[in-house]
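Risk mitigation, structural track. In case the binding assays with EPZ fail to produce interpretable data, a predicted complex structure has been prepared as a fallback.
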Amino acid sequence: MDKLLITGGSPLQGEVRISGSKNAALPILASTLLTETPTLIKNVPHLRDVTTMVGLLGHMGVEVTIDDRLNVQVDTSSIHSYSAPYDLVKTMRASVLVLGPLLARFGHADVSLPGGCAIGSRPVNLHIQGLRQMGAEINVENGYIHARAKRLQGTVLYLDLVTVTGTENLMMAAALAEGTTVLENAAKEPEVVDLAHCLNSMGAKIQGAGTDTIEIQGVEHLHGTEYVVLPDRIETGTYLVAAAMTGGQVRVKQADPASLDAVLAKLRETGAQIQIGADWIELNMAGRRPTAVDIYTAPHPAFPTDMQAQFCALNAVAQGTGTVTETVFENRFMHIQELQRLGADIRLEGNTAICTGVEQLFGAPVMATDLRASASLVLAALVAKGDTLVDRIYHLDRGYECMEEKLMQLGCEVRRVP
Ligand code: EPZ
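Fallback model:
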């Protein structure tokens, strides 16, 4: 099992290129199941989760070819299976995103229920409820979602909770349904908007993505397209927090500044100077220590839960005390006890972490538990005195492309050890 060995103390300096968004690439790859002619998806990040999704499409008989620039060509004409087996789904919950497209295009889907994960039980009841309201026959038994539908029927769906992949699954299902579907209380994340843009480039008729109400007029067929995935806003935020924590100066390129307003506002509150261009952001905290900030996670456009762990790490070394409240997931503080091993002064009270910044963290062996928790441990290791060994970094590989190379480019002492 790979580990990362990090020696803290160097401020991050320089430029880093942001990869395509994992959480946009996954639904967009699933949406290729809807098209009758080949699709080319560009700027796909080279991540374990993307490899899993490509493997899942391949398992169904879909032809997926990846060129050396990581453009992914998908041709579904040879599909022979409509199932997503447990051994694939258990490694990546987002596999459930094939449910809506399979049902809409082929009327048939057998998808393993995604297990829970470290951050919460993460049910998919709203995905299933919405598809049933569109006329699908769905039986959940032996850990599988068995779904059948002659032709899904458009209807008005009110989502009890804001769910990102729930919104995406239902939007993809509605694209080929009979009649019009309205999604009320829809998720507004930039990745939902990116998926809607991709679907419209395939011939779908979707309006309102990015607002609470999305209207989808069903069409008979969708055709192939060429689509460029938007930059990853969470990867962007992660490198900017690293620059702020280490008192450095970093420019992130090929980014999408408009997709992380809440994060940039909080970074400014820490005292960072931020300049923004069309596709780049520069953060300057040269020689200064960040001020602690209060964080309250909620669905977009509020502060993203996927940046919560990173700000716990920042608050751990900031001036003063900051509170971090997690309202989206029930158990997303697994990083706290690992940060405490590095000397952080953080205590949990219900779903709020109270962080009092310390002058210095000290390197120690720590263990990653989930994707964003592992990022927060890497960030803390960048400022800790001495060596930190981060174990189980396969979590990191799921969501950060070539993290050690990018950190080395920025002047960090980091290397992967077996
Ligand atoms: C997406 O997960 C992201 N994953 C997550 O990113 C992200 O943290 C999350 O949205 C919130 O922004 C992908 O896009 C692949 P939800 P998703 O459905 O869609 C409850 C990362 O680090 N809920 O918006 O699974 C659920 O339990 C990952 O990149 C139901 O109860 O999240 C949670 O408490 C982690 N029933 C809340 O809603 C449902 O049917 C929000 O979940 C669906 C969701």
